[in-house]
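Pilot study result, target chain (240 residues):
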Amino acid sequence: MLESIREVYQATPWLENLPDQWELLKEAGTPIECKKDTIIFEQDDEAEHVYLIASGRVCLYATTPAGEEKALAFIGKNGLIGEYDSLGNLSHATSAITVSKTVLYKISTGRFRELLKQNFHLVEQLLHFESRKYRMLCAQSLQLSYRKAPHRICATLIQLALNYGTPLEQDSIQIATTFTHQEMANLVGTTRITVINTLKWLERHHILEKQNKYYVITDLPRLESLVQDETWKLTKHAEG
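Predicted structure:
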């Protein structure tokens, strides 16, 4: 795979367990405990707050005029969600919903602005986080060139391996973060059944295996080659 493509793959749509330190935001914010499937804000609502995720996971998704929903990212611990513009008022470009039990810190945009003015390291961290989100959108734009859902699923597995991979024996890589079939389906724009069938195909052909709750990529070069193979189909080869 071209190195430039691999660099783009390093921008994963799963942003969690980030190294940033946001203690000042925790001190300034109001803690909120949310159950799974709690709407935090909705697309086009006025952006009056930003939210720091202390634990759990949140899905950001956009809704088309026809009412179709497209998942854009899953943000976890130490991630920031919500829009902020120091030069004017913004509305939320996406909606946000919890996909697990989640603890948030809610900070008004006015207070957030004051903290940024007083603490340059917060500005640096914010720029770093926004840069990661930009690279994530670049990676998603690249995936749009893959017309078939199985190719997009494989590309997403590569992203996860490059960002959350733990090397194992015999060049295997354990994806050290979990995801549900439905989360993957929402992210790549396909059905849960297609995700299940694709993962099973990869397991049958010894490219992927499940160890406890984590997936392990046993043949990363072959997985990369599948993404680039426009003729590849799940039914292309018989088992064996």
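One observation from the pilot: The CA atoms of residues 14 and 146 lie 19 Å apart. A full batch analysis is planned for the follow-on phase.
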